Amino acid sequence: MAKRGRKSAYDTIVKPRFDDILRWLRNGATEEIIYKNLGISKNAFYQYKKEIQEFNDLLKKGRESIVEELRGILMKKARGFEYKEYKRVTKVENNGKTTVQSIEEYTKQALPDVAAANLLLKNYDKENWSNDPRSDDLKKAEFELKKKAFDKDNWESDL
Q1: pLDDT tens, residue order, the chain (159 aa)
Q2: Directed axis angle between helix 53-79 and helix 42-51, to 10°?
Q3: Interatomic CA distance for residues 36 and 42, integer angstroms
Q4: What pLDDT does residue 156 have?
């Protein structure tokens, strides 16, 4: 049996604008910008995000696409790349009129960026690229101790 009554704001406002939401996310919009653009309250936005898997998946998909694009840009910058640059050669004549004589094309090389390479290595090869490997080991040991203490406290409280 069909649901009776008025359709929800999700069905009338949010769902028809899925394409807009994806575009906003790809352009770097925050969740605040999105719910303001949709004209819905912050509470309604987060309720839809929590309760409607379709909406939550859309938001994740939009964020993942921008992350992939940025990862590609960072990888390109870390490796270095060639690009073309164009220069217009103009001439000013006696009557004050400016004319374009030619357009010169140059191929230039962007050198690999050490900071971009460092960031990528720290994220892709954490075991070998860390600012302080000893600190990482200490954090892991601290986590294990906290986990044991938490498990012990919960075991005792269950008695």
Answers
A1: 456 778 888 999 999 999 999 999 988 899 999 999 999 999 999 999 999 999 999 999 988 888 888 899 999 999 999 999 999 888 888 887 888 888 899 999 999 999 999 888 888 887 777 777 677 778 888 888 888 888 777 665 555
A2: 90
A3: 8
A4: 56
Q: How far apart are CA 36 and CA 4, in angstroms?
A: 29
CB-based contact 14:48 (threshold 8 Å) = yes
Please name which of 140, 141, 117 lies closest in space to residue 129, comparing C-alpha atoms.
Answer: 117
Three-state SS string over the chain comes to: CCCCCCCCHHHHHHHHHHHHHHHHHHCCCCHHHHHHHHCCCHHHHHHHHHHCHHHHHHHHHHHHHHHHHHHHHHHHHHHCEEEEEEEEEEEECCCCCEEEEEEEEEEEEECCCHHHHHHHHHHHCCCCCCCCHHHHHHHHHHHHHHHHHHHHHHHHHCC
Report CA-CA distances (Å) from 9 to 1, 12, 57, 93: 21, 5, 18, 65
Report the C-alpha gap between 122 and 130 in whole angstroms.
Answer: 6
The number of residues making up the chain comes to: 159
